[in-house]
Amino acid sequence: MAAPPTASRRGLISALMLVAAVCVAVVALVVLLPAARSDPYTRSTLQLSGSGERGEQLFLINCAGCHGIAAQGLVGPNLHGVNSRKNNRQLIQQVVSGRTPPMPRFQPEPQAMADLLAYLHTLT
Ligand code: HEC
Fold it and tell me: In terms of CATH architecture, what is 40-122?
C-alpha cells in the first residue's frame, strides 16, 4: 500500500495541530477564566472595604523599597494612575501571583489586600 504523498501528510499534521491549539484555547477560556474570576481569595477581598491609611502603612513596609515611598517608581514602576491601567482583579493578581519577577509573591490577608487596593486607588 502506497503511503500518502508527504505534502498531504504535512497538511494533515498542520490541520491536527491547529485543531489541538484551538482546543487548548477553548479549554483555557472556558475553564481558567471563570476560575480566575471566581477565585475565593479575590472574591472575599473585593467584598471588604479597605482603608487607604492602613494600606499606605502596608505599602511603606512591603512595597516602598521597590516602588518608592510615594509610589513614584524606583526598581518597580511608578504606581500613580495604576488603577486606570489595571482593574481590581488585575491589581490583586499583580500582588499575589508573583508572575512578574523581581516583584515577589505576597500573601496578604484579604483585609490587608483590600487596604492596599484602597491605597492604590488614592494614587491618581
Ligand atoms: C522587589 C521589588 C518589588 C516589590 C517589593 C514590590 N514590587 Fe510591585 N513591581 C515591581 C516590578 C519590577 C514591577 C513591574 C513588573 C512587570 O510588569 O514586569 C512591579 C509592578 C507592580 C504593579 C503593576 C504596575 C503597572 O504599571 O501595571 C503594581 C500594581 C505593583 N507592582 C504593586 C506592588 C505592591 C502593592 C507591592 C507591595 C505589596 C509591590 N508592588 C512590591 C517590583 C516590586
Answer: Orthogonal Bundle (1.10)
